[in-house]
């Protein structure tokens, strides 16, 4: 259970509902996931988070699917169960193949492994990296 | 300073030197960075790590540059200074533009932010994500 | 399920029960939460942890409610589900309002976001901070 | 060294300089710290981050000093050296006393300790916390 | 639920089944735990992970039980619920006593606590440690 | 630089000096490392931390060297540079060999790797582990 109630459409304020409607229109689905329903207690913060997410995760110099993979990587390193599930679903909706998912996990594992070894060894940064 | 000495070519064993040589040949540079010199105390582990890295970070269903971005994301979430520096350098060598770097950081920041909010809210995973 | 059994009052030793009783008296409730029941296998450690907690979380130069907010912040960053739930409940019992909870989460999210961006950028510490 | 150059006033764009000026005016100091100079490569992101920070860290139902303490707590759990330094300086500027700093660290330490023990024990969340 | 299906013996490829069989033979049990069934979608990665695990966790200059304790410590700090459960079970199978388990948790808690305090204080590394 | 001054023997209070003296006597060295000098601003907390450390890290059902290895593992996963250096030095002082250090790092790396893969896969805990 969440530490706050998840607000249904009926319980959400008009301001929050307007954000839900934009989420629905942007994603082309009627479904509004739990994260937004938990945020809806504070409509201003709900809107700010959603507006920022649209900008950050939208098309740019990186592909939206690549952005989802990066999101999964961060969420995995931080151990955020919800975020891993929601962004794995989002990546699949954007075309992530099983092979890509497998390679993503392999890179995450490799990075975690060397992060640990490097930190245990306290390897000093090479001058050549600083440019 | 590292918790172990970094081995120069002169100090490394023949077995470790052979890995250094493969690193040089694979990357087309004479430079062997500190991580490998710290690992060289145990040539078998040095080789296993390098061989695995070549497989994981090489071409596949994900582009090598995308893999570097994922590596940076994990290393950032884990706070590994050396890894952030070395893989940012590697990503640049593979063509990462300043705009891509900026978007990478924006996605990392967004993921970190929502990871924190989701965990603080303990949002339950939507059934629709479980498929 | 826990990695050790949770001890009921009947299963706890006399030494552990004495700590349970102090928890009850201090909090003015008959309820002893699972954390203490899991710790009760080692009554000396149970007592040391409880005695320390009373000192650290009690009144001082910081308000007990503020201390709970700090506790939630750390627990969130560390991804400790149990701790987030137990200290959110404790903060509510000490008077945390929904608005304060919302602002706590906003600060946690902001800090997580900039932690990630700063680490990805490896921003050097300003001399002016070192005083 | 940062992974990007820190932009001086001379190197920053007009758009970035406008944010620098707002930082100066808001804080009543001519000094603009390194974080903003590293972000200045992308003026839109610089502005979005600064505007959001002003809202989140400003007065509300939580005191601005309390918000700084929460920020330090998160930054400490995430191991962000820069953030610990910058927000410890900010907390002092907002009146944090040595005694408050000491208690903050004690709460952080206590939370870290029980986060570890709880996770190692996998203590199940009490039903009574879910409300 | 996992983000990928767990493969039964019937669903696994011949290559994956061969790894399952080696897991069974090595451990002297018919049971293959969920981690390997989730990895089985990519038999090459399944084999590489299992082969590496056998080498790393096998006898050497550190006792296999000590290695399990270290594994639990890392998994706890990273908040990996599955890993804490699986390696606590493995440590018990290798002879971990309740007293050893209690001391392990006490050391983890002590380390977490001082990690937090040291990071909050930004204590500089003593020259005497660098040798 | 630390976020608080490190107190010399001359600057420390009589109460803090008494703890310094016990550290010296216990370790058989005149050297008091920076962590204790940073904690010395609050003599009560200094004493509580030192007394607890002596109990937790002293002989018991786990060997003091094994406890240092566990401490390094946690500190590495948490990215605490100071703690990695100080406890690596402590482990060496208690007899850690280069081969043991290498195996410790290999186990840390393996655990980090599988922590990441397991979290990315969200592998459900096997019923057989819950006992």
Automatic annotation (TrEMBL), chains A, B, C, D, E, F:
Residues 47-115 form the Carboxymuconolactone decarboxylase-like domain. Keywords: Oxidoreductase, Peroxidase. GO terms for molecular function: peroxiredoxin activity. It comes from the Bacteria. SUPFAM superfamilies: AhpD-like. NCBIfam families: ahpD_dom. This is Alkylhydroperoxidase AhpD family core domain-containing protein. The lineage of its organism: Bacteria, Pseudomonadati, Pseudomonadota, Alphaproteobacteria, Rhodobacterales.
